[in-house]
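We modelled the chain as a single entity of 398 amino acids. Its sequence is:
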Amino acid sequence: MKIICIGGGAASFFFAANAAKNHDITIVEQGKEVLQKVRISGGGRCNVTHDCHDPMELVQHYPRGRKELLGPFYHFGPAQMIEWLNERGVPLKIEADGRMFPITNSSQTIIDCLKNACEAHGVQVKTGHKVKKILPLNKGEKGYDIEFLNHATEHFDAVFIGTGSSKAAWQMLEHLGHTVVPGVPSLFTFSIKDARIKDLPGVAVNDVEVHIPGQKKHTTGPLLITHKGLSGPAILKLSAQLAPFFHSCNYTTQVVVDFLPALSEAEIRDFRNHEGKRLLNNYQLFGLPKRLFFSLLRASQLDGQKKWATLSNGEIDRLVHQLKHCTFQIQGQNRFKEEFVTAGGIDLKEIDFINFSSKRFANMYLAGEVLNIDAVTGGFNFQAAWTGAYLAAQSVCA
């Protein structure tokens, strides 16, 4: 079988590496280089996957695609990806947060592994080849004529789409009859200008809870104050969970931060009884960074030299509000220059997740960010691509 992989990214290379033993495969990429997102992932180290081996737990990291990926992860998940790389001499290491990287700390290791696996089975890789049209013959039953930008047309028996969040690819597939969920940014940080955090860039809090007023989603995790606003895993997870909402409000809304999710309001108010002799500026009581706590004290209009026992109900209310319901105005989003994720893509109802094939066309497979699947940071987006590409490859080799 003659197969074309459109897009020179992770999904296409992994599909080709696993299918080329049985088939004649060509990867085409419109740019000058392939595997660019692999190269920049994880700051150039490539966050390959995550040390989460329970599919039920793993799917919780996917705001879109959670239900659809559960079955596939039982067939090919992080454990199988780790084994696949080990068999090719690429061991991974686990970091404290569960992210997994090659022990070389270099994305080039993963790039070389994928390229070598493809070259070993004669996969052709053509850069500077932009696909202009995908022409299914008898709904794909008789293959596809692929027209390139230079007007050359070539026939293939099957097509694998691994174009990532390419608008041009989405438009081609939409023109064929697939439904495309409009793409919006996911995994971004919040642009905030607020006196309470103006002088606190670099200050981090290990565990907070954040939510948007009126939205049900709450996320937890570390928070980082930057010179542009708020960042860190808690913020990134919230941006992913509510990506369509943020887009709809043009990234101007409020975010509420609970700096002390482990303490209830009642427990904080009780400090007046149990810690009455202590001064307010004894920041160790809460375990918050000193500069942040003092800033919240000032925002509460409280004198740090006062003792807890002397506080009025109104004064405690103000402090509790800043600690548990600290509200900031979001004035936009900050995106990573190259390493970003998009929510949106081919409607998941049109994909058969047994083998990641199109329900509309025969012999068409799709995996990676071309689908309306995205995840939070931690190697999860790559894992979805590996899983889809592998199951598609298994299907064409069956």
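As a brief sanity check on the tokenised model: The radius of gyration is 25 Å. The chain is about 35% helix and 25% strand.
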